[in-house]
Amino acid sequence: MSTKFEQTRQYYWFAVPGVLTFATLVGGSFAYNIYLSFNEWQGIGKPVWVGLANYQELIHDRVFWISFLHAFEFILAMSIIPTALGLMVAALIYDFIAKHFGNAVSTFLRISLYVPQIIALPVVGILWAWMLSPNVGVINTVLRNIGLDKFALNWLGQSSTAMLALSVMMIWIQIGYTIVIFISGMSRLDPYLDEAAQLDGATWFERFRIVTIPQLYPEISVVLLTTTVAALKVFGPVYVMTNGGPGDATQVPAYFSYFHFFSTLKVGYGASVATVLAMILTVLAIGLLRFQRKMGVLR
Amino acid sequence: MSVKRKKGVAPYLVLVGLVFMALVWLFPMYIAFINSFKPEQEFVQNGVLALPQDWDFSKFSKFWGEVNFSKKLLNSAQVSLFVAFIGVVLSFLTAYAIGIGRVKGRIWILGFFMVAFTIPQEALIYPLYSVSKMLNLYDNIWSIIIIFGVMSTGFGTYLLSSVMSTFPDELLEAARVDGASPWRILRSIVLPLLRPTLFVLATMFFIFTWNEFLIPLVMLPSNDNQTVTLAMAVTTGQYTSDPTARAAAALIGFMPSVIFFLIFQRTLMRGITLGAVK
Description:
The complex is a heterodimer.
Chain A: H1 2-37, E1 39-40, E2 48-49, H2 53-59, H3 62-118, H4 121-131, H5 138-145, H6 159-186, H7 191-199, H8 204-215, H9 217-232, H10 236-241, H11 253-262, H12 267-294
Antiparallel strand pairs in A: 1-2
Helix pairs in contact in A: 1-12, 2-12, 3-6, 3-9, 6-9, 7-8, 9-12, 11-12
Chain B: H1 2-36, H2 40-46, H3 58-67, H4 69-100, H5 106-117, H6 122-134, H7 141-164, H8 169-177, H9 182-211, H10 214-219, H11 228-235, H12 243-276
Helix pairs in contact in B: 1-12, 3-12, 4-7, 4-9, 5-7, 7-9, 9-12
């Protein structure tokens, strides 16, 4: 017993550098951020303690609520739609393409759909802002060419369409990730169940819905968690494409806090927005992990 | 019977549909590519969809020169390489204590990393900014190397711990019976066997770091220190009225990532699926 304990004790040393640096840098910064959220500060001089004043201001700030509303809209565009579509496409690739046309075709499809994932978000933003430009942009050109002139809008320039344009771009970005995860998940499934259902006369879609999807719950929950976290953190595309505008039409929490940190210099206020965002993300992550454990997803 | 009959047509329909979808997905890259090399006159005359008649490389090289893109490439490469190295070393050591050493309280250590992993960069950025100013690390690429190197350990420890917890016990027991120290076991047994996984992780850290935006934006104000992603985001604003120059900017921005991806495609795909489900 004692030798075993001696042994594990020796192993603690290996965790010291990682835990210490991580706790200092991430834990320390986050603690400091929480402290700042109870202060009024312009970034120079001494912070002035104001208690909960920043949070009280938040509750009455219309823009704060709008920014979170948009974050939840991004959950739809970055998490829910890509998960649903990705499941469908992954199953089609796995069941039809790989079986009948070989691995080369399925690899080509996977790579093509995955490419948007690999590009930095601000660069994707530059690309799409260019494609969406109202007069010479390729999207409006195509719309005009196929006779949909009335849809050739100033997508990013008017508040009624800016969120929609960003959301379409997000779907384009996200779907590759969900497809790759789901295909790799399908390869671990037992083909016997699928064959049995086929012998019972189930159509492809029935097998997809009743046999494949339930077996993929582990992958689905991981994908939902990671993409939801990403949706709540959106910053780069908003920064390069809209600056949160027009008006506050594309304002998101990350950009909103950045704006107060570095433009209005209301550091304490920005810190309170960031703290609320962090709390929501943490609660969400813990909630999903517990849910997974309950469902028996995590071993 | 009906299943057999369907097999004739359905796969082809699926193939056509998915190939069409793939082409739609690749279209933005294609359209940026052809317009980067299209002379401005042709753009005005033939529009955005037409292929260039004369290939004009001047926009591309002009943008490259004005942004001093070679310097940004070097900066990004330096940052990403060091972060990958630091991140892998720190994650490996921590995961070794958790996955192989099975130290007491390992669940708590892992839980701490995972919770901290969800904290958004916005909730860290101002403290990082003011502390780096105090330490004279502001506007120095080493500040973001340290920050990302350490921050990577959240994901890295999680991933490597779950890989290491499946490590064959017999190997470790045999080494312990022979009197090997933890350090010796790490060097002679675990490290050699895990080298491919560490490479996968390093590749992922490299590309994650390459694509980082918020922290470089705040930490690296001067031109000479900018990374590729940052430089793209802050300089293209001045080209808004020149559509072909904007195409060239977008192309230059995504080219390094796409090339990197095509080279390391297999490695990256393995990492992505490894991270998702342990």
